[in-house]
Amino acid sequence: MSPKTAIQNKELRRASIQKIKDAAFLLMAKNGYESTSIAQIANEAGVSKGLLYNYFDSKRALLQSLIEQAFETGDAIVSELVSDEPGKTIEAMFTWFFKDLKMNADTWKLITQLALQVDKYEFVKKIIKDKMNGYVEILKSLLGDLGYKNPELESMIIFAIMDGIGVEYLILKEEYPLDEMEKFLINKYCG
Q1: What is the C-alpha separation between 73 and 70, in angstroms, rounded?
Q2: What pLDDT sits at residue 1?
Q3: Can you tell me the distance from the alpha carbon of 48 to that of 108, in angstroms, rounded to the nearest whole number?
Q4: pLDDT digits (tens, 9 = 90+) for 92-105
Q5: Angle between the 178-190 and 86-103 helix axes, to the nearest 10 degrees?
Q6: Do the Cβ atoms of 90 and 109 come closer than 8 Å?
Q7: Which of 2, 34, 50, 166 is deepest in the core (most CB within 10 A)?
Q8: Is the pLDDT of residue 36 over 80?
Q9: What does the pLDDT read at residue 4?
Q10: What span, in angstroms and rounded, lies between the C-alpha atoms of 42 and 20?
Q11: Closest-CA residue to 132 (of 146, 148, 118)
Q12: pLDDT digits 0-9 by tens, 104-161
């Protein structure tokens, strides 16, 4: 058997890291961060603890990587949604949020759990705060273009509403009128 090429080794490394992240996310979303051990993550990923520690210094570093990856994905999606028409951009953002909340409820659940424990996870607070400030700026600009008198506060209200919707949906699941809320927000801000 011939030795692996640098490209093959890089792909194996990438695949191992992703397996670890997927396992960590699954377990942390299901059991919570505190209740998930490195041993459980390694077992779920099918790797040794040593290999896991080769890629991540600690469970905290792994969690930070998961959160950063989630927000990077969100950033890429938001940048694709921005158009020359502020109303259509806001509508696309609402549509994406509601769709993602349904499809990736576990991601929202984990981020919500961590966000509600900001005193324990200062690094989570910093990541969320930085990202939210960026999203508020985007929405503020769009609302300003639409003529809202105080677009900064209006954008903060929208995010507070979306946070509340997210929490209520995570608690009530199918009992929550998610589709109706989506239509309501689109009509209110884009209609």
Answers
A1: 5
A2: 62
A3: 28
A4: 999 999 999 999 89
A5: 170
A6: no
A7: 166
A8: yes
A9: 75
A10: 7
A11: 118
A12: 898 888 888 888 887 787 888 888 888 889 999 999 999 999 999 999 999 999 999 9
Q: Map residue 118 onto helix, strand or coil.
A: coil
Q: How far apart are CA 128 and CA 101, in angstroms?
A: 17
Q: What angle do CA 73, 162, 63 make, to 5 degrees?
A: 40
Q: Which of 48, 17, 12, 46 shows the shortest CA–CA distance to 4? A: 12
- Quick one: tokens of 10? 């890089």
Phi-psi region of 147 (alpha: psi -120 to 50; beta: other; left: phi over 0): left
Which is it for the CA torsion 69, 70, 72, 76, positive or negative? positive
Q: How far apart are CA 41 and CA 44, in angstroms?
A: 5
Q: 52-82 pLDDT, tens per residue?
A: 999 999 999 999 899 888 888 888 998 999 9
Q: Which residue has the higher pLDDT, 1 or 36?
A: 36
- pTM (2 decimals)? 0.83
Find the angle CA(99)-CA(17)-CA(96) to the nearest 5 degrees: 10
Distance CA 183, CA 145 (A): 22
Domains of the chain: 1-56 (1.10.10.60), 59-190 (1.10.357.10)
Euclidean distance between CA atoms 57 and 72, whole angstroms: 21
